[in-house]
Amino acid sequence: MKKTATCLIENSKIILNNETVFESPAGNFPDFAKEAYKSMDLAYPKFHKMDNLSKLAFLASEMILKNEDHRRTALVFSNRSSSLDTDFKYQDSINSRENYFPSPAVFVYTLPNICVGEISIRHKMQTENAFFVLDEFDEEFLNDYAQQLIQSGKADKVLCGWTELYQESYKAFVYLLTN
Amino acid sequence: MENLREELKHKIIEVLNLEDVASEEIKDTDPLFGGGLGLDSIDALELIVLMDKEYGIKLSDPKKGKEIFSSIDTMAKFIEENRTK
Questions:
Q1: Bridge partners of A96?
Q2: Which residues 38-77 of B have a C-beta within 8 angstroms of A?
Q3: Residue A173 in 3-state DSSP?
Q4: In Å, how far are A18, A21, A63, A102, A172 from A1, measured between CA atoms?
């Protein structure tokens, strides 16, 4: 298995294949994500509707997947905090009986695997996808899973990654595997 | 009524996260769905919540949404006639 591309996002920086390709003075993730989106010239308005975890996974994936056909690429992602960041936002909207306005647009992001769905939609992927909630990034585990997908003929490539986001803390490390 | 139309455009842009859309780009009679705004079924549900939260209108029959949410004009007219706050 070869790792053909990597993307790391943390501390307001995007590092593609060990080279910093975007850096922002933005202090928080929403502002950073908005600036990164603009810099990539994506013209994909649905990005603005995503929750922060999906934005993080989307940006990291887009850096690797853009400009190529990835309909035969599978997705195997993981993180520690699942969708907890958005779960709390949704909880806030239903906490009070007097101010009970559950948001459908927030609710749809109260599962971590929604972020791989967003990437699949963007790249017209109908391949396998999986999202694991793990204590820490386990590259060997993800690579074993990816290898099975490739060996079974279900995918030509697998985009693997760790996309962790909770409140002010975020980190994405995404990489593309091929045989 | 004109103020309400403007208010609605701003609220829709904010609630539906239409970051790339300016209020001047939404014409009063433009279709909200199936047009240039790219709204989907989740957006329709958010508009139902908006009607309740901002104007105290509970839509008991979601099927009526198609008619009410046809355009800014139809939304504003419905709100004027049914608002409780």
A1: none
A2: 38, 42-43, 45-46, 49, 52-53
A3: strand
A4: 19, 26, 21, 45, 21
How big is chain B by its Cα radius of gyration, in Å?
A: 12
Q: Is B38 in Cβ contact with A46 (below 8 Å)? A: yes
CA dihedral in degrees (A146, A147, A148, A153; nearest 10)?
A: 100
Q: How close does chain A come to B2, measured CA to CA in Å?
A: 27
Residues on chain A touching B57 (C-beta within 8 angstroms):
none
Whether B16 contacts chain A with CB within 8 A: yes
CB distance from A30 to chain B under 8 Å?
no
The pLDDT of residue B63 is 79
- 3-class DSSP state of A52: helix
The pair of structure tokens assigned to A122 is 């963007």
Q: Which two tokens stand for residue B35?
A: 């047009």
pLDDT digits (tens, 9 = 90+) for B4-53: 999 999 999 999 999 989 999 999 999 999 887 889 999 999 999 999 99
ipTM score? 0.87
Pick among B11, B39, B46, B59 to test the A interface (most A CBs inside 10 A): B46
Cα–Cα–Cα angle for A177, A42, A164, rounded to 5 degrees: 50
